[in-house]
Amino acid sequence: MDNQRIFLYGALFFVLFLIWDAWQKDHAPAPQEVATETRAPSFDAGLPELQEGPAASGDAPAREAAPPAAQATPPAAEAQKVRIVTDVLDLLVDTRGANIVSARLLEYPVDKGNPDLPVQLMNVANGEFFVTQSGLRSADDLPAPDYTAVFRSSAESHELAAGEDELVVGFTWQADNGVEIEKRYTFHRGRYEIGLDFIVRNGSEAPWRGDAYLQLTKRLQGVERSFFKPSSYSYTGPAFFNGEKYRKLDTEDLREASLSETARGGWGAMLQHYFLGAVIAPQDQDNRFYAASVGRDTYRVGFVQPAITVAPGAEGVFENRLFIGPKLQDQLAEAAPKLELAVDYGMLTIIAEPLFWLLDKIHTLVGNWGWAIILLTVLIKLVFYKLSETSGKSMAKMRRMQPKMQALKERYGDDREKLNRAMMELYQKEKINPFAGCLPILIQMPVFIALYWVLLESVELRQAEWILWVNDLSSPDRFYILPVLMGLAMWAQQKLNPQPTDPIQARMLMIMPLLMVAFATIMPAGLVLYWVVNTVLSVAQQWQINRVIEKANR
Questions:
Q1: Cβ(460)–Cβ(328) under 8 Å?
Q2: How far apart are CA 515 and CA 15, in angstroms?
Q3: 244: exposed, middle or buried (Cβ count in 10 Å: 0-12, 13-18, 19+)
Q4: How big is the CA angle at 28 (ends 25 and 30), to the nearest 5 degrees?
Q5: For the chain, which has fewer Cβ within 10 Å, the N-terminal or C-terminal residue?
């Protein structure tokens, strides 16, 4: 086997791997088209029974002292939408449940052509349904607002003022027996992590005991999978981290049986390409996580905190957090342990994560993701330089042996056995290893594929500009300049390598640059930029090696 055949097999391996990896990411069949209804799914699945939990400090023990059943909800009130705006979020909170029913990401336009139209991550219109839902449950029919109870708001809108770093917005619910519940959201400038606390103020004459739950409910719309749109294969659906293991939840399995699991800390999330919503449990207590199918193509993931007891005249607090926004890896890592795993790099995460870390550090220095990719390519090339040099020397020697190899082919004609034996003898005599070019390809291929997923999945590179015509490194080059440059660089690389003696291989080698150009037209521009730079550096290295070897053999 000569090096050209190895190159062809390597390219074929790469294409087949991408197709296989994309297939693996498609965990569930595409959801069926759904009816355009906007009412919330019924709360009929997934939520565990009321848990035991520690009593609040100074509380009286008190199931026995519970009063007769009190009115669980206040008189009917009309719900309204309250708008909350920070520097990065534009939210609508429905006072029915004080739940977030709309979330717009102000720093992330839908596309370059509509800079004033932000991505809407949560919504309950046009057939979409993606909301937060949270509430309290109590023992012995004590008053507690569930996620449909109507809260009161002090204002119709709240905005993070200029110069302020924190915004606190509270919603209140009052029972007839004097129990008051405040649902408090806390926002910070530049952050997508949101504090969500339930404050129980027990103004009654008996202890109050109950727990709190926080969940995300989302209708999964059908996604058209297309090989020509690689981002369509990004995982969309529920995910769960139990403090030790992260896993994406199979929606088919959830249709058959709900998930229920106790975990120390942990979080649950609804993922989609570049963005997510997550419910983050307190990391210092055991929480009961659940996930379930709750309607037509609608799923829920959440957790229940351990119950607390609040003595008469005392106050108890359930502390929770949300994350609603882009998959910014630094903010995800700060928000909760392993939340950054929501950035789905697939089976090569172990390589992709350090690649992104290095790319991010370079970007911090140069301030441009395109130049960061180029510098990363140079660094990768330096790491593999000696390995590539060994392969290049073998190719240069084989190139010099081309006339002798052609003579052997003419001598033995179609007798493949004698021709191969003569070839091996020639390799041994000239001290050429025909397999030397295979190892660098096999070693560098995982790095290349890992970088492919880094560029495809990292929201930091979404709509990132480089220079001139490249205004989005995460999308294909709309003018095809980079794919054409890549094809020319591959053609130059072929001219420096030994040419195959087999005419079929020679013809395949001629059309390979054209096939790769066509393939590159659907790849992210950032990946093609890496490919171009890497190939140009390889051409320069091979040209230098060929020159040195030819000079030594004159």
A1: yes
A2: 11
A3: exposed
A4: 105
A5: C
- Residue carrying the six token digits 């498609």: 26
- Is the predicted pLDDT of residue 371 greater than 80, yes or no? yes
* Residue 302 Cα distances to 105, 199, 218, 319, 554, angstroms: 23, 19, 12, 14, 74
Residue type, 314: A
Cα separation, 467 vs 371, in Å, equals 9
Amino acid of residue 109? P
What is the residue whose two structure tokens read 């059309």?
511
253-306 pLDDT, tens per residue? 888 888 888 989 899 999 988 999 999 999 889 999 999 988 778 999 999 999
Neighbours of 454 (CB within 10 A): 29
Burial class (CB within 10 angstroms; exposed 0-12, middle 13-18, buried 19+) of 419: middle
Phi and psi torsions of 220, nearest 5°: -90, 110
| Alpha-carbon gap, residue 440 to 387, rounded angstroms | 6
- How far apart CA 449 and CA 464 sit, in angstroms, is 20
**What is the pTM assigned to this prediction?**
0.76
215 CB-near residues (< 8 Å, 6+ apart): 46, 47, 132, 133, 134, 268, 279, 290, 300, 301, 302, 303
CATH number of 80-328: 2.70.98.90
Structure tokens belonging to residue 19 = 């197709």
The C-alpha atoms of residue 142 and residue 71 are separated, in whole angstroms, by 8
For the chain, give every domain's residue range.
80-328, 353-552
Question: Which residue reads 């920070």 in tokens?
Answer: 86
How is residue 456 written in tokens?
A: 């495809």
Place of tokens 């005392």: 314
Q: Please report where in the chains the tokens 């799923």 appear, as a residue.
A: 299
pLDDT for 123 beyond 70: yes
